[in-house]
Amino acid sequence: MIELVGLTKRYGEKVAVNNLSFTVRPGIVTGFLGPNGAGKSTTMRMVLGLDHPTTGDVRIDGRHYDHLKDPLKYIGALLDAKAMHGGRSAFNHLLCLAQSNGIPRARVHEVLDTVGLTAVARKKAKGFSLGMGQRLGIAGALLGDPRILMFDEPVNGLDPEGIHWIRNLMKSLAAQGRTVFVSSHLMSEMALTADHLVVIGQGRLLADTSMADFIQQNSRSYVRIRSPQRERLLDVLHGAGITVVESGSGTLEVDGGKPEHIGELAAQHQIVLHELSPQQASLEEAFMQLTAESVEYHAHADTPHAPPEPRREWGSDWKRGA
Question: Is the CB of residue 76 less than 8 Å from the CB of residue 173?
């Protein structure tokens, strides 16, 4: 378990992390999200004692990192895949880590096999591709068979097979009861991997909740409907007190509606439906909605975009032709 209480880090006048408190619990994959410059890397560095907080406290299983004997047996981390001696082979890089933490030599062979680098174990790390470097970094994190694992952008440079592998690895580690804390900007992958989310912006905590609740609380859910009997359907929905939004191309949307209820109404009035589908925003859309005011670096398109199609809302005061 990783516990942060009132964690603050200042660099001169710049506040990188601001009174941050949350707990990363075992048995689930916790995703760590935030825009560029939000303070994610600084927070992770403070967990590992690489940076010291200005105020506040962070503990690993109740102890500070610098009080852990053989720390790789408690927490394994990948923060920077390039943080290795390029002149050493993959095997010797891991062997140095093992010897400094009282880890048996045999474990080096085990983790090399786990990450798929056995065939290149004797090759120098400086010749590795970005993806191979990531795998070697992950091997280092796994080396001490720790109860806590922390990864910063673990899929960076990995091919599709590697991304699938690391996703399943993190889920497997959590299923074993380990604490898994992962930061990534790849929202589609995070949506498939994380069970819980911690989101920060400008160093402050914005959300600490389950994946499902995060999306529900920060996005719009609605039911999309298409019917060749659109006018009759509008009359029926209006008569039932259901507010309908017309989104263009004949498609209707009902905010917060239940597709079962709408389908039953249509069936009772013998209305044909070509589509009746619940819609939920993606993690990326929910994240953009929550962090819109916390983005430090904005990019601007060079070309103008066409204006969106107008949306017309039909509520309880709806009248045909109004």
Answer: no
